[in-house]
Write a structure and sequence with these properties.
Elements lengths: L10 H17 L11 H20 L16 H5 L4 E7 L6 H9 L8 E8 L5 H11 L3 E6 L6 H10 L6 E5 L9 H12 L3 E8 L6 H22 L11 E4 H6 L10 H11 L4 E11 L5 H26 L6 H31 L6 H20 L12 H11 L2 H14 L15
Parallel strand pairs: 1-2, 1-4, 2-3, 5-7
Antiparallel strand pairs: 4-6, 5-6
Helix pairs in contact: 1-12, 1-15, 2-8, 2-13, 8-13, 8-14, 10-11, 11-15, 12-13, 12-15, 13-14
Length: about 450
């Protein structure tokens, strides 16, 4: 099966089958005699919990960092630098577009090897007017405008500019991105020295002090980076995160470009890189800085999109994921985290429903506690590390307990999305996160 031929067909049927399997798994322990009905959950807790613990402990401060930081001061290094296109897909970004251009112009990289592009994807606010003004003031900034509802979402916007650029590497940012001037140099150096096809910068929250919700998002991003780096150290899979991703153009072209049939281009592209044996590394410092969403309603809108895109890619690529393209370690890693991220929340909800109907105790609580416990450890480890970006919240007992409770929102979001994907046909819409300009 060629990657270019994967178009996301029959996702609704696959979602229904997934829901049926989760329902059966949620019901099954209740059919076992009471003295043994916790065994399935305990067994899974030991297997999945053991792997998750190994992943968190495998992350090291020195993992995947550029060992020779002075390399970027070497004149020979500058002479051999590849060409880079910086791409930003923007829609209705009047609050941040001027700041974005200022950040792009501050990137330290040889001028003749750097190209800056902003794709205005049918904005309906003042973004086009502001871009026109900025373009006239700063000739280095290139602007491509797409008509309203051009289709393809962020992937379509990025694909639209590819034939106008020829950089050997693509540095993709979101419109709210804030970054250090030498971040691209350090990411390129890491990619070239390590033989990586993609570099994902750790994401950090620039408005961490806004409220408790923003602080928990900052902790969640640090936790995610710890887990990603640990998975990679275990021989598993690491993924792109959209904002702050540096990717090799030749690899992207071999994957068929950005997939316009998905709502999360980064997660889909991560699997395409994986299946073409093109490794991705997570770079801890310096991080890419972005805004946290400021309300629960905005958080749930964002997380529903992430959850749906995450499931879409498993439904789309599963025949290839179990093929000989992947090593045994990568298959084990994908299986464990698919069970923890997507299966456990749905099964837990089914288990709770059956328990209420039968007036019994839930039976998957050991696995849920283990999963949240590992997350707590990753919270602590991530927030205990140094950061060149915005400060990370203090990993004290109260903040970790709060962040763990906050993380349980996935036990609501994932089942909701599975039911939605099973019951309704999906119309692909790029539901962007609103940026305030923090």
């Amino acid at each position: 099966m060629a990657l270019a031929k994967i178009s996301g067909e029959n996702r609704r049927i696959k979602s229904i089958l997934f829901l049926i399997c989760c329902t059966l798994a949620g019901i099954f322990p209740h059919l076992i005699e009471p003295t043994k009905n916790l065994f399935p959950s305990i067994a899974l807790s030991m297997i999945l919990g053991g792997y998750g613990l190994r992943v968190v402990l495998k992350d090291r401060r020195e993992n995947y960092q550029l060992q020779k930081e002075d390399l970027i001061q070497d004149e020979k290094f500058y002479e051999t630098l590849p060409t880079v296109d910086v791409l930003v897909a923007a829609r209705d970004e009047e609050n941040v577009i001027e700041r974005l251009v200022s950040r792009l112009l501050s990137i330290e990289y040889p001028e003749e090897k750097l190209s800056l592009w902003i794709i205005d994807d049918g904005s309906q606010d003042r973004t086009p007017v502001l871009l026109q003004k900025l373009r006239s003031n700063y000739s280095k900034v290139n602007v491509l405008s797409r008509p309203f509802l051009s289709g393809g979402g962020k992937s379509g916007a990025l694909n639209a500019v590819l034939n106008r650029t020829d950089g050997e590497w693509l540095f993709i940012l979101d419109a709210d991105a804030q970054l250090q001037g030498n971040i691209l140099l350090r990411a390129i150096a890491l990619a070239l020295n390590g033989g990586w096809s993609g570099v994902q910068l750790r994401k950090s929250v620039v408005n961490c002090d806004l409220n408790q919700l923003a602080a928990y998002q900052a902790m969640e991003m640090a936790m995610d980076a710890v887990i990603q780096r640990g998975r990679l150290a275990c021989g598993g899979v690491s993924e792109l995160r959209g904002n702050g991703q540096l990717i090799n153009r030749k690899v992207l072209e071999s994957c068929g470009g950005f997939n316009e049939k998905t709502i999360t281009d980064d997660l889909d592209l991560s699997f395409r890189f994986l299946l073409t044996r093109s490794p991705i590394v997570i770079m801890w410092d310096p991080p890419i800085q972005e805004e946290a969403v400021e309300s629960m309603s905005a958080l749930f809108r964002q997380r529903k999109r992430w959850a749906e895109g995450g499931l879409q890619r498993f439904f789309d690529y599963w025949p290839l994921l179990i093929s000989k393209r992947l090593s045994k370690l990568k298959k084990i890693d994908l299986t464990c985290f698919f069970l923890l991220q997507y299966v456990l929340p749905v099964v837990s909800l089914i288990d709770l429903g059956v328990s209420i109907i039968l007036v019994e105790r839930p039976l998957y609580w050991p696995l849920s506690i283990v999963a949240l416990g590992i997350s707590s450890l990753a919270f602590w480890k991530g927030c205990s590390q140094n950061s060149e970006g915005p400060r990370l919240p203090s990993p004290n007992f109260i903040s970790i307990v709060g962040a763990t409770i906050y993380l349980s929102h996935w036990f609501i979001v994932i089942p909701f999305i599975v039911f939605k994907m099973s019951l309704f046909r999906k119309t692909l819409v790029w539901e962007k996160t609103d940026h305030i300009g923090s």
